[in-house]
Amino acid sequence: xxxxxxxxxxxxxxxxxxxxxxxxxxxxxxxxxxxxxxxxxxxxxxxxxxxxxxxxxxxxxxxxxxxxxxxxxxxxxxxxxxxxxxxxxxxxxxxxxxxxxxxxxxxxxxxxxxxxxxxxxxxxxxxxxxxxxxxxxxxxxxxxxxxxxxxxxxxxxxxxxxxxxxxxxxxxxxxxxxxxxxxxxxxxxxxxxxxxxxxxxxxxxxxxxxxxxxxxxx
Length: 218
Known about the structure:
The chain is mainly α.
């Protein structure tokens, strides 16, 4: 019985089998990485597959900005849909294979988009903490309102005063039994609406400042 011939190609009269060490080295040279070993290529492949996994978490607006190949986008959508562990693993291997076809500029753009999303999430958390602090200060002290209006003059003064007054009225007295059990008092509607107003005004002020900065640079 004749043996099945190996797949490969000839280079300068020498046969190179697909998947052999020499084959990997030659392909690495074509990619501009002549010193890459089989281990290096495996590490690079794993890193790209991991990067592909991170793409599954990327916001839609940042993803659209990348303008990735349609085949890769379809593969990512399919990976997000699959819940079976083994099926998802195989699909992510396919995603990693497609990622290897991307140029360096696109890979760099993907990293930049992921960094932007991470920094944006950190900024959002900071904004929430600051808004919570201002809400509590506004309810606790009349002096806080004067400071707020000085910093955020675009605020509807009548609206914020009304919400502060109502939030103070709606704040329940301390419940010793609930505190001893570690239970937080239920927050009123005015309390939540004051937070939403504070957060919206802080966001608006940030957007307004950014717009003015862009206009100055133009």
